[in-house]
Automatic annotation (TrEMBL):
Lineage, top ranks: Bacteria, Bacillati, Actinomycetota, Actinomycetes, Kitasatosporales
Stated family: Belongs to the class-I pyridine nucleotide-disulfide oxidoreductase family.
InterPro entries tied to this protein: Class-I_Pyr_Nuc-Dis_Oxidored, FAD/NAD-bd_sf, FAD/NAD-binding_dom, FAD/NAD-linked_Rdtase_dimer_sf, Pyr_nuc-diS_OxRdtase, Pyr_nucl-diS_OxRdtase_dimer
MF-aspect GO terms: dihydrolipoyl dehydrogenase (NADH) activity; flavin adenine dinucleotide binding
Organism for this UniProt entry: Actinacidiphila yanglinensis
Annotated disulfide bonds: 50-55
Name recorded for this polypeptide: Dihydrolipoamide dehydrogenase
UniProt keyword NAD present: yes
């Protein structure tokens, strides 16, 4: 429904979604499937950071690097890998997966579900109202009968270092959309973006220096970061733990960047990339008009309803709520919140008990994550340290993959390690971590066990196929039973 006042158009929908990334699209899809009318506001590309400058291009670029690394671990296949990776072919592959940064396919998806797309910057303007400012300056007002869902994602945080602007650093954007390989690349930050970008650009031939304040992948079990550090070093990445950049210089815009480091050393590179964390896209979305602080992460309950806002109409999903900065977890929140909004709109009961239909319980207990490094690292649930800190009485079981024949048949001289964290009181798994080639596809088995709270005694009946990498489960369970 729409009407016009002066030159400002006003329209009313059941739900207004801010941001058409993967998360915004999921909440829209679920609300539409329940029969609600939905407006989606997007200021850039429908598909968001994930589709064009994060998950999809990074994995399109990494896959050839990891495929070649896998082939090199198999006698007979290794001899067929004789040359360097063809970066032109890799970039062309990436361009196909990001559809040349053209979002028409995803626009068609929104049309197909019957959601209305509004292009422009969306801002909340008091309860249940959103203004959209288009590039040509035109403004329209959207009113939400039931809910406004914020899914505006996050952007890179850059440290405040002298010379930062002059250095014109890369962020995840240039790290995923560049079509030339820098001769020398410094990457700052040892989280997920840093380790994947180091794997990728080294694989394409760059001389990469990875500067990390702390050990790599600090949110995972410590052995994951250690094995990934080792893998990067074997690939030729100069990994420097404890390093920080204190100043940057790039006097000639076409010339190299000079980094001053905290140990007083100097490093010269052709590009520098920052992978030093994310900040929510909430500074310019009108949070102050509903009593919230601009620029803050949005604090939500288990149904993704924002706390501290009267009237139960504002939801926040995906990166902006800071539960887990991962596409799949944000999409889970989007599916859940879409269903919650529909239930509340229809006056139906909301099942927000733990593991209920309308609760994002997995955000607290079973978040899975895979890093596409060499070796791959995958984890779900709590680490041993997190589980103990949360007050659980735990047993930690560790095994090397080398004993699993399936793993060795997959890669000669397979190197990998797994850990499971068992809750001794309930005899269920709290967390599992795998590190090794090919473990990315193994992780979901652990996610099912953790989210399903499958009793340890039942897990022994989940027989692993011989000979597959999954045999690691047999070694883990045997070690648990015999301890
Ligand atoms: C290099 C990199 C690799 C990654 N790899 C993975 C991976 O392999 N797997 C994984 O699960 N996660 C990965 N992530 C994390 C993942 O990208 C994010 O968790 C995901 O994009 C979050 O989705 P979202 O929909 O919340 O936000 P986004 O994808 O950022 O989408 C938000 C959308 O909102 C729009 N928007 C923002 N503000 C407004 C406004 N005011 N008005 C209108 N529109 C607005 C933006 O333009 C954008 O389109 C990676 C991140 C990075 C940086
Ligand atoms: N495959 C995947 O699922 C995948 C891949 C990449 C990123 N992601 C997600 O995207 C999000 C963002 O990743 P990220 O790596 O940018 O952030 P992050 O927060 O995971 O890691 C950033 C790292 O940079 C370090 N750091 C911060 N400031 C620094 C400084 N000035 N100097 C040196 N080091 C500094 C931090 O200590 C931290 O270890 C993460 O939450 C991650 O889960 C997921």
């Amino acid at each position: 429904m729409s009407d016009t006042q002066g030159n400002q158009e006003n329209s009313t929908y059941d739900v207004v979604v801010l941001g058409a990334g993967p998360v915004g699209q999921n909440v829209a899809d679920h609300a539409r499937a329940a029969g609600l009318t939905v407006a989606v506001v997007e200021r850039e590309l429908v598909g968001g950071e994930c589709s064009y400058w994060a998950c999809v291009p990074s994995k399109a670029l990494l896959r050839p690097v990891l495929a070649v690394a896998d082939a090199r671990r198999v006698d007979g296949a290794r001899q067929a890998v004789t040359g360097a990776i063809d970066s032109g072919g890799v970039f062309a592959r990436r361009n196909r997966y990001v559809t040349d940064w053209d979002d028409s396919g995803q626009v068609d998806f929104l049309k197909s579900i019957g959601a209305e797309l509004f292009r422009g910057q969306g801002r909340i303007d008091g309860p249940r109202r959103v203004t959209v400012t288009r590039d040509d300056g035109a403004r329209l007002v959207l009113t939400a009968r039931h809910a406004v869902a914020v899914a505006t994602g996050s952007g890179p945080v850059l440290p405040d270092i002298p010379g930062l602007d002059e250095a014109r650093p890369w962020t995840n954007r240039q790290g995923t959309d560049s079509s030339s390989v820098p001769g020398r690349l410094a990457i700052v930050g040892g989280g997920g973006v840093g380790v994947e970008m180091a794997t990728l650009w080294r694989g394409l031939g760059s001389h990469v220096t990875l500067l990390a304040r702390r050990p790599l992948l600090p949110r995972l079990e410590p052995f994951a970061g250690e094995l990934v550090t080792d893998g990067l070093a074997r690939a030729g990445v100069d990994v420097r733990i404890g390093a920080e950049v204190t100043a940057l210089r790039r006097p000639d815009p076409q010339g190299p960047v000079t980094l001053t480091l905290n140990d007083g050393g100097v490093l010269q590179v052709d590009e520098i990339m920052f992978a030093t964390g994310r900040t929510p896209h909430t500074s310019d979305i009108g949070l102050e008009t509903v009593g919230l602080t601009p620029g803050s992460w949005l604090d939500v309950d288990t149904t993704c309803l924002v706390r501290g806002v009267e009237g139960d109409w504002l939801y926040a999903l995906g990166d902006v709520n800071h539960h887990a900065l991962l596409t799949h977890q944000g999409k889970y929140q989007g599916r859940t919140a879409g269903d919650v909004i529909a239930a509340r709109a229809a006056g139906r009961p909301v099942d927000d008990a733990p593991w209920g239909d309308h609760a994002t319980t997995a955000d607290q207990h079973a978040v899975p994550q895979v890093f596409f490094t060499d070796p791959e690292a995958g984890a779900v649930g709590l680490t041993a340290e997190q589980a103990s800190a949360a007050g659980h009485r735990v047993r930690t079981v560790d095994v090397d993959f080398t004993a699993a024949q399936g793993a060795n048949l997959y890669a000669d001289g397979y190197r990998g390690h797994a850990r499971m964290v068992v809750d001794l009181d309930r005899e269920v798994l709290l967390g599992v971590t795998f590190v090794g080639p090919g473990v990315s596809e193994l992780l979901h088995s652990a996610t099912v066990a953790v989210a399903g709270e499958v009793p340890m005694r039942r897990l022994r009946h989940a027989v692993t196929c011989f000979p597959t990498i999954s045999e690691v489960w047999l070694f883990l369970l045997t070690a648990y039973e015999r301890a």
